[in-house]
Design brief:
The chain is built from 10 helices and 14 strands. The structure holds adenosine-5'-triphosphate (ATP) and magnesium ion.
């Protein structure tokens, strides 16, 4: 069974295509990540899935409901943690939670109980009567995630839930996301942090320029990333990129005054470079192995896919 089925979903803003004809399925109970750089279209996608934005074309089904045709039923299944903080700063933490509970039509006794529980879970119980304006960023974000959980949800959307937080808050939020997922709640989160996607998600869709460029388990994506390790080298004279296309080097790019060699096996290429330097009499001024990064994955995955 699927929790979400997206088909040819597109969003244009004044002729600019922010989300470009994406289709995928999120399985029931899955912890699914939308990973992409700034401006990739993650938030726009989440906003369409949660009924905040109307798609230009295409459909999204939340369980058995079409988000456009049955928005109320679909929204009743969801908890939403949006990108922008939405707590009322002049209200206390508990008042914010109770207000959300009221909006969802949860009975008074139950909503108090639920709010108290969430405050404990998120380490905010001691400060529950304090106004949110006195909270630190991490405390605010924990509250916002807790607010997303007030509903009796089957599906939780989180847009960059840990962006800009310290290690402890990040750990707590990730741990709680995992625990909710273990209880059977389907989770969709966005992040631009590949390590977060790697640690949390069962499957990840990589988004770039409004398109899904890859969708797979993190382990498999990581293998793609590992294969894009690179070495940056600077010589004392201009060396042509073509000269460094040794066996095992997939590409050589000029980056400033350095040359970057893409390879699966940097440890084998480094001795070759040293040999090359000795035999050619070009001196190596600097040599660095670069950890594979998200940008490299994007370069790799989106190559040829752009105008
Ligand atoms: N309301 C809007 N009007 C016009 N353009 C918009 C609007 N909302 C988003 N966009 C554009 O759509 C593109 C995708 O934006 P979106 O917020 O979905 O990216 P994102 O992947 O969430 O990025 P980030 O990691 O920075 O949050 C951007 O180029 C953005 O400028
Ligand atoms: Mg965003």
């Amino acid at each position: 069974m699927y929790a979400i089925a997206i088909k040819n979903l597109t969003k244009q803003f004044n002729g600019f295509t922010a989300v470009d004809n994406i289709s995928f399925i999120v399985k029931s109970g899955e912890l699914f990540g939308l990973l992409g750089p700034n401006g990739a279209g993650k938030t726009t996608t989440i906003r369409m899935l949660t009924g905040i934005l109307k798609p230009t074309s295409g459909t999204a089904r939340i369980g058995e409901y079409d988000i456009q045709r049955n928005p109320i039923e679909a929204k009743q299944l969801m908890g939403i943690v949006p990108e922008m903080a939405n707590a009322y700063l002049d209200l206390s933490a508990i008042k914010n939670l109770l207000l959300i509970g009221e909006l969802y039509g949860i009975q008074k006794k139950k909503r108090i109980e639920k709010a108290e529980n969430l405050l404990k879970l998120f380490g905010l119980h001691g400060k529950r009567h304090q106004r949110v304006k006195t909270f630190s960023k991490g405390m605010k974000q924990r509250l916002i995630v807790a607010m997303g959980l007030m509903n009796d949800l089957k599906l939780l959307f989180l847009d960059e839930p840990t962006a800009g937080l310290d290690v402890e808050s990040v750990r707590l939020i990730r741990k709680l996301i995992r625990e909710f997922n273990d209880k059977g709640i389907t989770v969709v989160l966005t992040t631009h942090n590949i390590e977060e996607a790697n640690q949390l998600c069962e499957r990840v869709a990589i988004m770039n320029h409004g398109k899904i460029v890859a969708i797979d388990r993190p382990e498999k994506l990581k293998r793609t990333i590992q294969s894009t390790a690179s070495i940056e080298v600077a010589f004392n004279e201009n060396v042509k990129a073509e000269e460094l296309l040794f066996d095992g080097v997939t590409e050589v790019k000029k980056v400033g005054d350095k040359l970057r060699l893409y390879t699966e096996k940097p440890e084998e290429i480094i001795p070759t470079l040293v040999e090359y330097s000795q035999s050619s009499n070009y001196k190596i001024l600097s040599l660095n192995t670069l950890a594979p990064n998200l940008e490299d994955v994007f370069v790799k995955l989106t190559r040829g896919g752009e105008k």
